[in-house]
Design goal:
Helix 4 (about 100-120) crosses helix 9 (about 260-280). This protein is about 40% helix and about 15% strand. With about 300 residues, it is an alpha/beta fold.
């Protein structure tokens, strides 16, 4: 008889995410077991406690999901889990803290499609050389999007709308850790933010829910702006004039195209579902991070 499928859901946070639990059940896992407030040093022993309880064939029905809120902590946990495997005793691991990996991947995949469709960019190279400004710069979605975009050749700027020093520290950390070159720019005044939007190709809004960080006035008149994507579904939207359902809709008084939270959310949902399913169906262990999420999101975004 086939063994039940088990997902060990680990997180440094106080609680496991109900969203992730629901997603795992919908992907086909029979049992989801949460482990909360976990420290990095506990990941390896926990993994080895899991892998030696079944035969090498039985643990194909066993996987691990890493949640939490910090993308660097999640990546550290992913690496600690991978190193703890003892082949042939090894299970798949998927990191997606706060859904940031799949959300950022979905947002950039949707942007990439608009650059191909509207501006004749080459598929697979659409982000290369594009100037991208990211608002909500200290959050996990913004950080993950910055790294993905930079790894795909974009010139990325994290926009500070409160403290430039905090954003500079984030950028320095990402650059050191992920081998990229992410810049920072001061957007602490409306005038500075407007100047930024007059010089970039793409704007990504990943600020807190209900916080508008880009106005129509700041976008108006830009001769370079091509696409504005916003992951905020709570009114007001993060980018004025970009409705939550927008999917390549021209933004009022601009020549740019808007992508709203629900359009991004569809790709995010399908991407997370696909990666959870991959762990269930893979013949061997897979280790899934934000770049794996972006590869899948690209495929999903290509579909009508």
């Amino acid at each position: 008889m086939e063994k039940v499928s088990i997902l060990h859901l680990i997180t440094a946070a106080k609680n496991a995410s109900p969203f992730d639990v629901n997603m795992a059940f919908d992907a086909g896992f029979d049992k989801i077991i949460p482990y909360t407030q976990l420290e990095l040093k506990e990941v390896g022993p926990l993994v080895q406690d899991a892998i030696f309880s079944r035969s090498p064939s039985g643990i194909k029905r066993e996987s691990m999901f890493i949640g939490g809120r910090d993308i660097d902590v999640a990546m550290d946990m992913l690496e600690a889990a991978r190193k703890a495997m003892v082949p042939p005793f090894a299970i798949s691991v998927f990191a997606d803290p706060s859904g940031a990996f799949t959300t950022a991947a979905a947002m950039l995949a949707k942007v990439e499609r608009q650059l191909v469709k509207r501006f004749g960019r080459d598929l697979g190279q659409a982000l290369n050389s594009q100037k991208i400004a990211i608002l909500g710069a200290t959050g996990p979605v913004a950080g993950c999007a910055a790294v993905i975009a930079a790894k795909n050749g974009a010139a990325v700027q994290l926009v500070a709308h409160r403290s430039l020093s905090d954003v500079q520290a984030k950028a320095a950390s990402y650059n050191s850790r992920y081998g990229v070159s992410i810049g920072c720019v001061d957007g602490t005044t409306e005038e500075r933010k407007q100047q930024i939007l007059q010089e970039v190709d793409v704007v990504l809004c990943a600020a807190a829910a209900g916080v508008q960080v880009v106005s129509l006035g700041q976008m108006a008149g830009s001769l370079t702006l091509k696409v504005v994507a916003d992951v905020n579904a709570v009114p007001p939207t993060g980018a004025e004039g970009v409705e939550v359902t927008a999917d390549g809709t021209v933004i009022q008084d601009t020549v740019a195209y808007g992508i709203g939270a629900l359009s991004i959310g569809r790709v995010k949902y399908e991407t997370q579902h696909a990666l959870l399913k991959r762990m269930l169906t893979s013949d061997g262990p897979v280790y899934l991070d934000f770049m794996a999420a972006f590869a899948v999101a690209r495929e999903i975004a290509d579909k009508p």
